[in-house]
Design brief:
- This protein has helices at 2-25, 30-39, 50-78.
- It is mostly helical.
């Protein structure tokens, strides 16, 4: 149970850091993307840039996976 909590905590911390960084450099986060979809018409989705899609569907899951690895390593070091 502590192992799961430690890994989850690291994933959360990495997600918060990643979201704050991409917003600063102008890439859509999942929160912005979902708000964009709900506020705009279907034809406006074409205005989302390729870099946004690459980040959301490739980069972000990869970064969260690194958060899992980091949490697992820290857990193994401590316990």
């Amino acid at each position: 149970m502590i192992r799961l909590y430690c890994i989850g905590l690291f994933i959360l911390i990495i997600a918060i850091i990643a979201n704050s960084l991409v917003v600063k450099i102008g890439i859509l986060s999942w929160y912005d993307f979902l708000n964009y979809l709900s506020d705009k018409e279907a034809s406006d989705i074409e205005q989302v840039k390729l870099i946004d899609y690459l980040w959301l569907f490739i980069g972000y899951p990869f970064v969260l996976g690194l958060g899992y690895i980091a949490g697992k390593k820290v857990y193994e070091l401590i316990f």
